[in-house]
Amino acid sequence: SPDCRHQSRVCFLKSSVSPGDGMPKENSPFINNTDHDKGSLYDGKNLALFEEEMDSNPMVSSLLNKLANYTNLTQGVKEHEEADDDEGSAKTKKPVKSPALGTLIGVYLPCLQNILGVILFLRLTWIVGTAGIMEALAIVFMTCSCTMLTAISMSAIATNGVVPAGGSYYMISRSLGPEFGGAVGLCFYLGTTFAGSMYILGTIEILLTYIVPSAAIFKADKKEDEPEALLNNMRVYGTCCLTLMSLVVFVGVKYVNKLALVFLACVILSILAIYAGVIKSAFEPPDFPVCLLGNRTLKNHNFDHCLKTMEVDNVTVTTKLWSLFCDSPYPNATCNKYFELNNVTEIQGIPGLTSGVIRDNMWGDYGPNGMLVEKKDQLSVPALDTSQDINMPYVANDITTFFTLLVGIYFPSVTGIMAGSNRSGDLRDAQKSIPIGTIMAIATTTFIYISSVVLFGACIEGVVLRDKFGDSVKGNLVIGILAWPSPWVIVIGSFFSCCGAGLQSLTGAPRLLQAIARDGIVPFLQVFGHGKANGEPTWALLLTAGICEIGILIASLDAVAPILSMFFLMCYLFVNLACALQTLLRTPNWRPRFKFYHWALSFLGASLCLSLMFISSWFYALVAMLIAGCIYKYIEYRGAEKEWGDGIRGLSLNAARYALIRLEEAPPHTKNWRPQLLVLLNLDSDHVVKHPRLLSFCTQLKAGKGLTIVGSVLEGTFMTKEAENIKSSMTTERTKGFCHVVASSNLRDGFSHLIQSAGLGGMKHNTVLMAWPGTWKQATDAVSWKNFIETVRETTAAHQALLVAKNVDSFPTNAERLGEGTIDVWWIVHDGGLLMLLPFLLRQHKVWRKCKMRIFTVANMDDNSIQMKKDLQMFLYHLRLDAEVEVVEMQDSDISAFTYEKTLVMEQRSQMLKQMQLSRTEREREIQSITDESRSSIRRKNQTGASCSESGPSRPLQETQEEEVAQLIHDRNTASHAALNDKADTGPDRVHMTWTKDKFLTERNRNRAEANMGVRDLFNMKPNQSNVRRMHTAVRLNEVVVNRSQGAHLVLLNMPGPPKNRGGDENYMEFLEVLLEGLNRVLLVRGGGREVITIYS
């Protein structure tokens, strides 16, 4: 339907078969879609197999229908005109007109009009005179090559897909990404805005210098004040002109567009008048005499005759020229010394094409500010006193001239090549018109400029060429005196041309700013995206006028031109880079219709742009780059979340691929080793992260460096996978890294898959960080601690380090700042030096910066602890780590009764959990029986334990026994309740069979007898000696660590490995629990089996 294109959702063509066609509705749910929403989208039988995907994958016919109705006319100038016309009238919907402009009207002529302008009329003759024909040709060649190469790159980008209105900004931002796009878009905007000021200054210069010089408000009394007076006049009139133009643009863009053709006609007529004048000068040169005093050029505003004295009625009288150099009009007056010594001669300002003056104009004549314009081959007698020369009516340089300055002033005369691509929305076939029109326009203007340089040098006298404001030819525009039929053709033509160009800059720049603002990549520009009801960018126009005013206050055309040169060159530089980058990366989407491009040409264009920037003005070049750099970093900092499939993204992918392949070649050296973390997160039932502090700790450990993969496992299928909560937690905790969520049928397999497959190539994790399963004793089943132990085993098998954080919820957040305190390292076994490295890395972060590092190591009876301390200090010195060293001596002591009982209780609990498959009806009685048995058993064993041990535990035995009994009963009750609740569903109660009363009683008595037998065996068992030794180590080590490190901010401890025999897994958890008892923040560290710290540089 015609309304389809106005809706954001996909429109589908309905089937031509209607229910009234005699086709009976079938009741099969496969054929008839019962979902009314989907039925309204697609109601046909031919493609019923695909109907469920119709909302995401439209039918080809509907897609092609949409494309046929598509127009890429944006809210540009045409719509603003239509909106203006519609105001007050009935709001009838106009059919959207398809774009109809061809190459000539749509691209060639707008480019021509934008390229030819103020510099050609006001400065080209002066550039030719100052630089000479050869150097002027070099300037033209360099700048035109730069724009031609840029046009080739631009044509490739413009023909690679549909370019909506927005032109160069759109092309660069979609090719190089939002950061570069924003930076270059704003550079282009500033360039266009300053171009507006340059055109306005050009308009005022023509008005005040050549049309109505008497309109000047500020007039100079002295000759040296003339430049300042001219600048002040420019500021006043420029501001008035800017206000007027802004009002015209604000009231209606349609007036500007209607006048565009008039302005273009002015430019073309002016150029034709110049060529006509050149041809006429070959056989009939115009009469514009120039007066020379010696070899110095005179301003002939205030005298008519180029004579010192003249005969009037046979009487010699002095002329007006005499009174300019002498103190009185009488022949005996005191005159300027140079005036006395030299004669006055008159030469033709335009000797003509065949005069041979071209030889004199081949080479340049640069000089400082105030240098007099002299004819080099003319004889003159120098005067000794030159102090008064500044007050005499000589033509002099108003600025210091040098080659690079002229490049900067000239460059704006070749800008404007984007005019065609900016109108891409209005073209019939943009992909064909933009390359042909733009390249033809550049070729035409290059020919005009080169021919102008040669013809000006061949026709006009050198002193007149170097006379910027035409003072030597009675204040005429120098290019105007060459033109035919009259200088006024050029003066009026250039005046209207500058007016039109200024208006177009003030029309184009706000729209460009509006496009950037609406893209939303520079947040502080959002306000400039709004405008009038018809979309006219009012706020953007105000800002543009404000920036324009800055250029007008500078007031000198020669000072403003290099500024806008910088911004345009920056823009062209990035257009070339975008094309080169896309070509070299071989992006699959890079398929331009324009085939005559090459990455080498684009690089040459980019280098030429960069060279021209620094040639024109190194200072302005650095400022422009700084502005672009600041915008780039700002957009990057604010996080422009735009995905435009840009080339920089492609470059990042290529660089990443190259780096990954290089990393794969060899394992990292110890010096380069850093913990590449895989953080294993557990989620609760609502998929919220259980321990967000684990991410905080990870951030503190990494300080933003190295690889971080945050992994988690969701039970279920791949369809239900979601990772948004983890990503938001990572953002909250400022963890920079990757999120990797695996969906698995159970957690065990999921974590196993993560450890095996997370990462890519050389960027794989080498360290796993996880939280201690704090509720493993209270868990309803053994899954949590079994998962934990299996993870420990798998990291060991994969030669990866393991960090286990206990009480992780008490770890500091990123906002906290820990005061004076210590990070204590208990170095019991050496497994690669990770224990030493971790505190050093943590202390790089501001949370831990004030903490001191202490290293404790354990000495046995046969070790020399004093020597150990010295060796350890030397080792740390070589490692360049600042830490206090302490060697803790552990005396050999016999296994205490407390340890023995702790082990026994642990084994009994373990055995008991295995046997707890009791029916629901038996539960309370059995628990009571267990409690009674445990009391008597513990008393009995304690008596034997006490008689066996020579040295008792450090605290009274009786207290310990009572505590242990209470703990055991508590644990047992909790565990049995939990276990039975969990297992009840699978117990005998769930078996549905036909029972007789006798059979039921027999079965119940047998179950009860078996259970009681198992329980009595349990309390007659003796603890395993290996377990007793392990428990002894855990208890003793815990005493020592708690004694020394209870107040530490963090304790790092070697993590013992799990038993090889899986039968003792639960005991292993108990050993670790005992080892860590009484400590607040603990990090258990298990090395990956390789050295991670070295003493070598």
Describe what you observe in this structure.
Helix content is 52%, strand content 8%. A 10-stranded mixed beta sheet has the order 8-7-6-9-10-15-14-11-12-13, sandwiched between helices. The chain has a 3-stranded antiparallel beta sheet with strand order 2-1-5, with no helix packed on it. A two-stranded antiparallel ribbon has the order 3-4. The two termini are 73 Å apart. With 1097 residues, it is an alpha/beta fold. The radius of gyration is 45 Å and the shape is elongated.
Considering the chains and any ligands shown, give keywords for the structure:
1097 residues, alpha/beta, ten-stranded mixed beta sheet, three-stranded antiparallel beta sheet, 34 helices, 52% helix, disordered N terminus, ion transport, chloride
The strand order across the widest sheet is 8-7-6-9-10-15-14-11-12-13
Q: How is the main sheet built?
A: 10 strands, mixed
Structural class: alpha/beta
Question: How far is the first residue's CA from the last residue's CA?
Answer: 73 Å
Number of strands: 15
- Tell me the radius of gyration: 45 Å
**Oligomeric state of this protein:** single chain
Share in helix: 40-55%
The average pLDDT is 78
* Anisotropy-based shape: elongated
